[in-house]
Amino acid sequence: MLSGIEISNSFATIDHLQTKLSHRQRGLTRDMDDLFKSIFKGAALILVGICLNASLRAQDVVDGIAAIVNDSVITFSQVKQQVDRQEQALRDALRDNPDEMVKRVKALRLEALNALIERELILQEFKKQGFDLPDRYVEARLRETIEQQFDGNRAAFIKTLEAQGLSMQEFREDMKKT
Questions:
Q1: Residue-level pLDDT at 59
Q2: Signal: present as a keyword of the record (predicted)?
Q3: What integer best gives the mean pLDDT of the chain?
Q4: Distance CA 33, CA 70 (A)
Q5: Where are the beta strands (DSSP E) in 16-115?
């Protein structure tokens, strides 16, 4: 049998071991807390990055199909390109009359869409007959694109082409196809 002293020493050893274990558990708990905080911060940063990236892409991806002409697509951004300046002028002029502004902007966009559809039909028929677009037409469209989309800044247009990995010649060839 164990004597009272041995039992007391056993309890002291058990208490000492429990205290040591408790300190280790607290240390592990702190380490785990730090680990979870680091993981949480990392996940939060990744989530913020994903959200920012998605919101930036959302601005580019809001385009959709406005019309399909045989095998060609006309997008909303193409329609908007056609009417951008006129639409802004309408918005400025009719700021105090939102109902009229909405009505006129819709009519302007519809008119632009119809013009794009008509142009596409003419181009398709032209190609169907075996004709090729004259260079002067491509150059006129090129000047129109630079004027409308880049406020006439040819250098900005060329930089944009380079950023997209296109040369001016490749862009002209693409214009001939479309």
A1: 41
A2: yes
A3: 75
A4: 62
A5: 65-69, 72-75
Q: Which amino acid is at 166?
A: L
29 closest CA partner among 37, 18, 41: 37
- Asked if 69 and 124 touch (Cβ cutoff 8 Å), the reply is yes
Q: DSSP class of residue 152?
A: T
Report the C-alpha gap between 85 and 65 in whole angstroms: 21
pLDDT digits (tens, 9 = 90+) for 11-60: 555 666 566 656 666 665 565 555 445 444 443 334 334 433 443 343 44
Q: Which amino acid is at 170?
A: E
Are the C-beta atoms of residues 105 and 90 closer than 8 Å to each other?
yes
Sorted by where each begins, the domain ranges of the chain are 1-62, 63-177
Going from the C-alpha of 18 to that of each of 11, 28, 94, 114, the distances in angstroms are 10, 15, 79, 83
- The pLDDT, as a whole number, for residue 45 is 37
Instruction: Note whether 90 and 48 are within 8 A (CB).
Output: no
CA distance 143 to 154: 9
Four-point Cα dihedral 101, 102, 105, 106, nearest 10? -150
* Total Cβ atoms within 10 A of residue 112: 21
The answer to whether domain 63-177 has CATH 1.10.4030 is yes
